[in-house]
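[[Sequence with tokens]]
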Amino acid sequence: MSVELSHKTVLPHIFSIRVWIHNTDTDLLKTMGDTLLEKAEFRVLNFVEHYFPVKGYTALWLLAESHLAIHTFPDGDYSYLELSGCNEEKTKVFFNLLEESGLEVKKEDIAYNGQPFKPAT
């Protein structure tokens, strides 16, 4: 049995979102990550998380399109979220959903190949 494989040519562009979220609730952040990735139609290949012994949390979603990472900083009640992806539309959808989430989001950097891009309207 022969299986025909196909591929899509992807030019080397990375769309990045780097924001601070005023919340360190690990259950909420993990659920938010899962939900926003699903709604933006990212394909999750793997997920790993680590709870640090004293305090703090890191979660990483390995995506077909790149990755999402969340790191908590409980002393300041902030979490850092970074999404890197090679699909501009999915990245913009994720960002718009994040802004609509009701969480307090401080925009750190939103970039396309190092240049700012505007979220979808």
In short: The CA atoms of residues 68 and 107 lie 16 Å apart. The chain has a mean pLDDT of 87.
